[in-house]
Amino acid sequence: GLFYINKDNEFKFFQTEFSDLIINSLTISQDNLFFISTDIGVKIYSFYEEEGILTKEQDVVGIPQVPVKNICKISEDKFVVATMQSGLFLISEIDGFYQCDNSYFDNLGSDLFIRDIDFYDNYLYISTFQQGVFKASIRRNEVRIVEKYNEYSGLKTNNVNSLFVDRESVLWIGTYGKGLVSKANDYFSFYLRDRETPKPYSFIVVNG
pLDDT below 50 — which residues of the chain? Predict the structure, then answer.
């Protein structure tokens, strides 16, 4: 389900609306729409704070009924949706209704296992399983990879679970079994590695 914590630290649990869903991420638009990524696509809700009510607005059509890992806002009316194995999709608002177009990589194969995305300074950062991290630009419906961070460029593994770019432009990377990594300028720094008992780091909030 989904929890809401108000300014008085009171909890509200929206269980009925999401009792059969796995929620992977939540993105809130400027007009207070909730874009909720689930194991079967993207759902959009309106939240009324005074009443403490969530109202469903729409299911986003055009996205396969597959696990969605994350949603990133890239402009006032556009969002990028990352699915685990079906690629990236672009959601756009047209006459108050959100719909998606298939966004694609023009220089990568289709065997991409996406784990997370983040958008910063007009670049989309993509973490993957087995291929490391991609830094990409988005123009219209096309995604172009401009940099790759993997074992060849300094990472200890190509299996990356999560990422986040902080307000000082530092890229933070959570890996499978190789700890936490930061990239500032052209240098990687490594943290929290335990060679004896490696553990995946599944979630990062750094300087958010």
Answer: 205-208
